Amino acid sequence: MTEDTDRLEVTVARSAAPEQQANAALEVRTGLTESFTVAMLPDTQNMVQFEELAPLFVDMVDWIVDSIEDRNIEFVTHVGDIVAWADREVEWARARDALDSWGSPEGLSTHMVRRRSDSTVGAR
Asked: How far is it between the farthest Cα atoms of the chain?
């Protein structure tokens, strides 16, 4: 976003490779004068369920950490299941290996918030 426009450019990326990115534009009125990035981690349950895929999760987090300043990343969200099986400690360990390298604060997941049907089972 630039000072002379209310146009926000959004890049949607499956990966860090430019050829796998798509662009979209949204018109918003924020009053912001500085551009920023929101990074999104996809569903990682398969990455932590299978040992050979675990490095993909680490690579994604490393890319985000390495890109914080260049892309002015202000917020990161995870939009899927972190693990496939909440009772498998090895999956949580693989997820922690990826996320701990980052050292960022955590937000609440829907599985950590009590509601009528208690969904706290497996929250770590």
From this structure: 52
